Amino acid sequence: MEISIYGSSITGLSLANSDIDLQIKGFENLSRLETENKLKELFEAFANFEWINNSSQMILTSSVPIIKLDINPLIKFSTLR
After folding, report:
1. pLDDT band for position 80 (cuts 50, 70, 90)
2. What is the reported pLDDT for 76?
3. CB 21, CB 6: distance < 8 Å
């Protein structure tokens, strides 16, 4: 699996309350169910970060499964380790 940031976060055009767009590669040869299971694992891992709010959600009913992460705008990423 390969995860990379794209969108306004990478171009420098994001605002303090902007979301972070992630592109996830490596699921191309998996079935829909396998992909959803991998995304659930990823979602659970993200939930452990202090900069992720509890209102984050998974949307598995869309044509492309989505993990929507609600980012805490009060967290300054430069202070995270």
Report:
1. low
2. 67
3. yes
Reading the block at residue 64, the tokens are 């492309």
C-alpha gyration radius of the chain: 13
Q: Cβ–Cβ contacts within 10 Å for residue 71, how many?
A: 19
- Residues making up the chain, counted from first to last: 81
Residue 37: partners with Cβ closer than 8 Å, 6 or more residues away: none
Give the pLDDT score at 34: 92
E-state strands within 1-81: 2-6, 21-25, 57-59, 66-68
Q: Say whether pLDDT at 73 is over 80.
A: no
**Burial class of residue 69 (count of CB atoms within 10 Å of its CB; 0-12, 13-18, 19+):** buried
Tokens of 15: 């605002």
